[in-house]
Structures are given as C-alpha cells and as structure tokens.
Amino acid sequence: METKKITQDDINRTVWKACDTFRGVIDPSQYKDYILTMLFLKYVSDVYKSKLNDYLIKYEGEVERAERAMRHERFVVPEKSSFDFLYEHRNTTNIGELIDEALADLEDANREKMSSEDGSSIFRNISFNSANLGEHHWRCLYVSRIHLCRGGWQESR
C-alpha cells in the first residue's frame, strides 16, 4: 500500500483544525500552547520510537542493549509519557490528568534538557486539566476530541 506524501498545506490544514477544537473555549493566545505542546510530544515520541526500532534492528532484537543505547539519545520518553500511550487512553475520563502527568514525567526524565534558566518547568503554564478548558466534563470532552495520528490531527467521534 502506497503512503500519501504529506504536504505543507496538509500540515497547515490539520493544525488549523486542531486549533478549531479550542476556539471559543480558551483565549486564542493560550490555545497555541496546548497545540504546540501536543506537537512537541508527538515529535519526541515518534523520534524515540524510530530510534528504538533502529537499535532493535542493530542489536538483533536485544531489548536490553537497545534500551541502554536509548539512554544516550537526545530525549528519553518514559512509556506513560509517549504519545502512543496517551492516544490509547484518549477516551478516559481523566485524560487531562494523564497528559499533565506525562509532561511532568517527560520533563523529569530530561531535566537537564528541559528546564528553564530559573529551574522551573517548561510546561508550568500548561495544564490539560485546567479550569481554562471549562468544567470537568467539558474539559475531558475537548481534550479527548483532539489527538494526533500519523496523518495529522483528527477528531474522535
């Protein structure tokens, strides 16, 4: 099966659609933080997964050797911080909490790379469990409705 090449227009269209999910819910100056955070998480998760696969091939399936090599990569992505884990749990009632915990764990695993100069969290102003996203049931709906996939942003039904 042939894979369709993703164009810049495809990327622009899908990111715009993701922003549409939050329009009217939170201030436009804030929703970029949520979208960019999820794009970053998707990117580091995909790179990590690809590198791990490369090491598994290189070391003929020896998981321990591949995992040891992964500790020297640019970012370490704990299992519960991976985009795939969050995607699998996207319909849970506490998805906002799961994303916040995933970001905290990702930051802890990469403390020297992901801290600001004053030592504070780079995700300190972003909470997917925030009252900024509305009451709890609406917040869960908004956060669970958007997710990234290989082809871009999609809305869950």
Overview of the structural elements:
54% of the residues lie in helices and 5% in strands. By secondary structure, the chain is mostly helical. The protein has one domain (8-44, 82-155). The radius of gyration is 17 Å and the shape is globular.
Estimated structural class: mainly alpha
Mean of residue pLDDT values: 78
So how many helices?
Answer: 6
Radius of gyration: 17 Å
Distance between the termini: 26 Å
How many β strands by DSSP?
Answer: 2
Strand content: 5-15%
Please give the share of residues in helix.
40-55%
Q: Total domains, how many?
A: 1
Q: Main sheet?
A: 2 strands, antiparallel
Unreliable stretches covering 5 or more consecutive residues: 147-157
Biggest β-sheet: strands ordered side by side in the sheet = 1-2
What is the global morphology?
globular
The string of secondary-structure elements, in order, is HHHHHHEE
Question: How do the helices and strands line up, and which of them pair or pack?
Answer:
Layout: H1 8-22, H2 28-58, H3 63-70, H4 83-88, H5 95-109, H6 136-145, E1 146-149, E2 152-155
Antiparallel strand pairs: 1-2
